[in-house]
Write a structure and sequence with these properties.
mainly alpha; single chain; Glycosyltransferase
Length: 349
């Protein structure tokens, strides 16, 4: 293990003894010059919900190390996101209660890396293998430095090449590695994967990021929302959260599209977001977008009611169901509630 990777792992372990300890560190009030009143991000209810959810996820992991995508079968994307949920709460691959869970999951994802660099479950049924590939790339980039697996670095760089080569003439991406059109959902996933890889020290062409940013901006409506495709359909909450998040992680905090998008997310706080579908996906991305906002008052306004909404939807004190199954739903809600832990580098301010 290199000195840099060893130092990173020691820093993580220095703050992680047990999940209860990690979550307790986030259970604090945050104060800002703009709003001196103390703002509690992590409540006892959040802590307990996360702990029980992680236990549920560990219990529904398949012996192979994978997690299920509904009833369809094992899925690289859901598995990668589930691993990120454990990482987001301070768990690491080679130490602690959930180390075996993480080790099996990471091993299964790596086992599905094709010689071309493409990462997806070839024996499964998926209409969006580029979703799977991007989630795996992001997860491996986040876990790099925490694991002694020597194959991770080469897998990330090969995965980056696949994403770069799959970018189409519009600057975006679609479900398959070779597509003529693009949509904001798949494109955002690729942007996050590329930025995660950059943070891990991998080479990503600047032109690829620049073209992707232009595509996302073309999906923005002047009213603040984001379209699924460029000027196609109508703006939606989930795709707006995704679009704003992707711009922010690329440093586009002050552009009109980000500012108007944040206004849209705040203004539609009380809307029935579940009725438009993709609730878990939408809340997850909206949370990241509002958290990243330069004005902390947006986060202080948006997060508490959403947190309570999310907590009220947990079933049997253990999991969240979704149109894509309980593993996916639980994973996305843990990622949302655990933002105050501030462990995933890709989403740190």
């Amino acid at each position: 293990m290199s000195n840099g990777r060893l130092i990173l792992q020691l820093l993580i372990l220095a703050t992680f003894v047990l999940p209860r300890t990690v979550l307790a560190q986030a259970n604090k009030a945050v104060q800002s010059p703009e709003q001196p009143d103390m703002f509690v991000e992590m409540t006892p209810g959040s802590e307990e919900a996360i702990r029980s959810a992680l236990k549920f996820l560990a219990g529904c992991q398949l012996p192979s190390g994978a997690w299920m995508y509904g009833k369809v079968g094992p899925n690289v994307g859901v598995t990668s996101l589930a691993i990120l949920a454990f990482l987001a709460t301070g768990n690491v691959p080679e130490q602690g209660e959930y180390a075996p869970v993480l080790d099996r999951g990471i091993g299964w994802v790596l086992a599905n890396a094709q010689p071309s660099g493409f990462i997806h479950y070839a024996d499964g049924s998926s209409h969006g293998p580029m979703y799977e590939h991007a989630a795996a790339t992001l997860m491996l980039s986040e876990v790099y430095g925490m694991s002694e697996r020597p194959e991770i670095a080469s897998a990330i760089q090969a995965a980056v090449r696949v994403i770069v080569n799959a970018q189409n003439s519009e600057g975006g991406w679609r479900y398959q590695p070779h597509s003529r059109d693009a949509d904001i959902s798949v494109t955002v996933m690729q942007i996050l994967a590329l930025r995660g890889a950059q943070h891990a020290g991998m080479i990503v062409p600047a032109e690829t990021i620049e073209r992707a940013i232009k595509y996302v901006k073309l999906c923005a409506d002047r009213g603040g929302g984001f379209y699924y495709q460029t000027r196609s359909g109508k703006p939606g909450y989930a795709r707006t959260g995704a679009g704003v998040t992707s711009l922010e992680v690329c440093g586009e905090f002050d552009c009109d599209e980000t500012r108007r998008g944040l206004d849209y997310l705040i203004a539609n706080l009380g809307a029935d977001k579940e009725s438009e579908g993709n609730y878990h996906y939408g809340i997850y991305y909206a949370a990241q977008a509002v958290y990243q906002a330069k004005d902390p008052r947006r986060w202080q306004q948006w997060f508490p009611p959403i947190r309570e909404q999310v907590l009220s939807m947990q079933k049997e004190g253990a999991y969240w169901d979704s149109e894509h199954g309980p593993a996916y739903g639980t994973t996305m809600m843990v990622l949302t509630l655990s933002i105050p832990c501030r462990y995933l580098p890709i989403y740190q301010r």
